[in-house]
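thought: fold this chain, then report.
action: predict
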Amino acid sequence: MRQAKRLIYLVLLNIIVSAVTLLVILNLWERNHPPIYAANTPVVILVTPTQSVILPIIANQSESSESIPTDTGLIITSTQPTTQTIDMIVYKVKAGDTLGNLSVQFNISVADIMTVNGLTDPDSIYEGQILHIPTSPLPTITPTPLPTTTPTETPFPSITPTQGATRTVTQTQPGQEAQLKIKTVIGVGVLANEHVVLQRTGDGELSLAGWRMDDGAGHTYIFPELTLYKDGSINLNTRQGDNTVLDLYWGLTTTVWRSGKTVYLYDAQNQLRASFAIP
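observation:
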């Protein structure tokens, strides 16, 4: 009987020692081997105000939510911003092409064509060059307004003027913007004499590159690279001839103007700048 009880005690003691040993081994294992998150297992991440997360931006994608897995198995959900696309036409420059001509042909401003193609000189295009022509005006970027601050008023010290002393303040008026007006049309109906007289007004210089004259009936003249200065003038002759600093030649074999027609003048941005009704 005593032999049996002693055997039972030994078995129980062996079980207790084995259990304690197993617990110690498991505890040491967990300390040296932290748990690894399974792939695609969502984890809540708390970001403090001093932390930031930089996410990739995918161009030409509409705003959407996307789950981005990381190397540690964490999933970060981000919102992608909207990127606006611009439709363009691929155009190969031909002999005689200018940005002014292309501006009128495709109804897009010279400035937009230069911006899209990274041009800095409107006269730098050449035959065979590939240009991208936007089909609509480029979007205008509206700057974020800066917060307004109210300046603190500092009182000026009072000054007692000396009797007899006077001061005259002359205010300079700003100059007028450079304009081009249609002064008159001479020799209407006579090819050898028919020409339009253009007069510069205002201050500064005015480039006519890309400007055009139109009779409203399908006849259009595109101005070459030409700069007019203050009080300058130029004649646009209907007939053929060689351009000079005073006379330009349309190159037509028949007259364009007659009494009752209207002369229209547009700038390189296709804005109407002047008109003249022929009496």
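thought: worth noting. Residues 36-83, 164-174 have pLDDT under 50 and may be disordered.
final: tokens above.
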